[in-house]
Amino acid sequence: MITGWLILLAALVPLSAMAQGFPSRAVKLVTPYSTGIGPDLYARALGELLLKEWGQPVVVEAKPGGNGFIAVEQVKKAAPDGQELLVLANSHLTINPVLFKNVPYDPIADLTPIAGLYRAYFFVAVKSDGPYNSVKELIAGAKANPGKLTYGTPYVGSPSHLGSAIFEHETGTKMVHVPFKESLQIFTSIANGDVTWAVATASSTAPMVKAGRVKLIAVAAPRRLASHPEIPTVEEAGGPKHFEVEAWLVLLGPRGMAPELVRRIGADVQKVLATPEMKKRTEALGFETYEAGPAEITAKIRAELKTNAEVVKRVGASAD
Fold it and tell me: Per the domain annotation, does 225 fall within a domain?
């Protein structure tokens, strides 16, 4: 019996030491997002405050492209010491696996959930001086011109992609999906009249909205948002009922991370998220803090994998 306890103690010592020794050098936050858009700006704000908490630099490494596969593959192969972490959205964790035939990672088996970060609802964005000033007009235009109107998305499998496909299905219209490599290009294309509309977050559209070239005509949420009280919900504006498009982002690490290390990093992140400075930055981007621990994140991934599989089948969304 004593020998058994000694073996267990010997096994736990290195795990505890790993948590106590973290971070031993600069921490890398890998993201699948382009530099300058909402999620990237959020990650950099988080990194700045974690630097104060950890006393080590927190470097945000943007790895856009490949539907998030590039970023996930990098962290998936990293050592489980917490020095290389991953910021991912529900799209990478619960849409990609049911939309693509071959996804090079298992969202549960290959990654370790650590903490929730934020959630955000999406808006319907159109050209400011274009022909569509409301959701009703957009639907009418799509019905009058089948296969002519286009919607842009940052990548196949994104919340924008699935949300737009649901909108298309629920309104009985036929439109063309145009995936982009860079998110900012979507709104330039809308402003130039090359793409008709998009479903996007307020932070992603902000530069073009401020420039007066793109406008938000509805929010895909169950209620109007405090940040944009003048903008109606899609349902209020005459669109599909209960139409919601939401992104939630979480912090993860490679599989095999010690539970004590996960708890340490998670607690530090939650501490930073609760500070007035981080709350202010989160709200400025149009996001809401998402408080969740590893167990809740895992449960949410499992539930949405099932739900999204049903949605993809129902609306006929495709990765092609």
Answer: no
What's the token pair of residue 151? 């919607």
Instruction: Tell whether 127 and 138 lie within a shared domain.
Output: yes
pLDDT at 4: 57
Domain that holds residue 137: 121-220
b/e map 90-99, b = 16+ CB within 10 Å: bbbbbbbbbb
**Whether this model's pTM surpasses 0.85:** no
Give me the long-range contacts of 36-39 (CB less than 8 A, separation at least 24). Answer: 36/184, 37/183, 37/184, 37/203, 37/204, 38/120, 38/201, 38/202, 38/203, 38/204, 38/285, 38/286, 38/287, 39/87, 39/89, 39/249
**Interior angle at CA 151, CA 145 and CA 155, nearest 5:** 150
Place of tokens 């000033």: 133
- For 153, list phi and psi in degrees, rounded to 5: -135, 155
pLDDT band at 315 (very low <50, low <70, confident <90, very high): confident
